[in-house]
Design goal:
With 181 residues, this protein is mainly beta. The strands form four sheets. The protein has a seven-stranded antiparallel β-sheet. A hairpin with a 4-residue loop joins β7 and β8. The protein is 10% helix and 48% strand. The protein folds into two domains: 9-102, Lipocalin; 104-171, RNA polymerase II/Efflux pump adaptor protein, barrel-sandwich hybrid domain (OB fold (Dihydrolipoamide Acetyltransferase, E2P), Beta Barrel). The longest helix is centred in the N-terminal third of the chain and has 6 residues, at 48-53.
Amino acid sequence: MNNTYLYPQIYIKLKPDEIRDSEIKNIIQNSALIEEEDENGRIKEISLDEALKSRKLDNTYFKVIYEPAYKLFLDLENTIITRDIIVFLPWTKEYIKIKSGTKVELLEIAGKNVYLFVREGDRIEYNNKIAYILTGKLEVRTYRSPSKGVIVYITTLTEKPLKYLLVVVDESNTRRYSGLQ
């Protein structure tokens, strides 16, 4: 049995001047997506070089390193998405787009050990069991969802104690694409 976890990929819409920023430049990876504005709503993957040569970056999303990506698209204090993003789910070959300005619910789950039952793309309802938490006293606690929506991003904030951040968006604020065109 293969237990390799496939990380989702995250693409963020950046402005031309932001791409030159050294902090952002360090986490941009080698590909991008172009969202075609037509009735079919298609997306197309291109190389980073092609994206940078393009004069029109209005519908271009740059692939960035997953773990630190939340610092570029999420306002933790106001709980909103600050840049348009597209999350690719390799296990379903599906893309989820979330627009900037979208209100999100942030779920922070911490403990000595945390065992998540959910991953990006999963729909959750109020009171769903989404994790077991092993405390420092070796007690097992169940974490139940305080909200409903689609989990679009999960990251680890700290290692000891283990602390996860889950970003949940109301499903009506997402757009899903199946595969590349």
